[in-house]
Design goal:
Elements (H helix, E strand, L loop, with lengths): L7 H11 L2 H7 L5 E5 L5 H7 L4 E5 L6 H4 L1 H10 L4
Parallel strand pairs: 1-2
Length: 83
């Protein structure tokens, strides 16, 4: 966000800091599937959100796995909802 002309980048960061994900999830009614990199996810996150989100642990690289492993990502997306 530092490459974004200011103050737009600063406003984006401020918005992320103020965002209440728990409140947003309480208002979300449809099923949500989260693909989480196994090496990056914490047990605390699974314990906190596992009852509201379908958490699928993946081994496809880093946070940018959709770019790093497009074929693997396509297989994951094709399987959503078919379980």
């Amino acid at each position: 966000m530092v490459a974004v002309r200011q103050p737009a980048g600063l406003r984006s960061i401020e918005g992320l800091v103020r965002w209440d994900m728990d409140a947003a999830l309480r208002e979300t009614k449809q099923p949500i599937t989260v693909f989480a990199i196994r090496d990056l996810v914490t047990q605390e996150a699974i314990d906190r959100y596992g009852d509201r989100l379908g958490i699928v642990l993946v081994d496809l690289g880093s946070h940018h796995f959709p770019v790093e492993a497009p074929e693997g990502t396509a297989k994951l997306l094709a399987g959503v909802g078919s379980e």
